[in-house]
Design goal:
By secondary structure, this protein is of the alpha+beta class. Helix content is 30%, strand content 29%.
């Protein structure tokens, strides 16, 4: 009889811990960040600085637990031809998955659009947080997607490699 009680307590504890972990990963830390992204920016070829582009219907989520949890969706009337002549493009980009409930951001569909050439990746901003760049992808239909990605300095810093002088200083706040 004692073993059944102990086993039941362990099983119930594991179920509660699993449910809490699932909730925290999928829902718990995310919050609406639409107000924090009043405009979409791309890095200009001429000034090497982020400049706003026309964007509407912006939706964004973020979490304080990690700088790479940011995701956003928007629409733009700007053509890909104009954007490629004006802003810094990237050779490739791999979208990060978003929580299933943030249904405007489908990483698999974005990756497919990138692979087939229906979308192009751009640099939105360098070092949004230490070692993290903002990536912006825009489709030929005017849909746009944003996420954060580790840059070379971020990959070095987070895998334990010595970060050289070429990386900007890390805020110690």
């Amino acid at each position: 009889m004692n073993g059944k009680i102990v086993g039941s307590v362990i099983l119930i504890s594991a179920l509660i811990a699993g449910a809490a972990l699932y909730y925290l990963q999928i829902y718990g830390y995310y919050e609406d960040a639409t107000a924090d992204l009043p405009e979409v920016r791309l890095v200009s070829l001429t000034s090497d600085q982020p400049e706003p582009i026309l964007a509407e219907r912006i939706q964004a989520i973020d979490a304080d637990s990690s700088p790479i949890r940011f995701r956003a969706c928007f629409e733009t009337p700007s053509s890909l031809a104009m954007l490629t002549e004006t802003y810094v493009g990237l050779e490739f980009a791999t979208p990060r998955n978003a929580p299933g409930w943030f249904d405007c951001f489908d990483a698999a569909a974005i990756a497919d659009d990138l692979a087939t050439g229906r979308a192009l990746p751009f640099l939105g901003q360098k070092n949004v947080a230490f070692g993290v760049d903002r990536i912006v992808v825009i489709t030929d239909e005017g849909r746009g997607y944003i996420w954060h990605e580790l840059n070379d300095c971020g990959e070095k810093a987070y895998d334990g490699t010595i970060v050289g002088e070429e990386c900007p200083g890390r805020d110690e706040n």
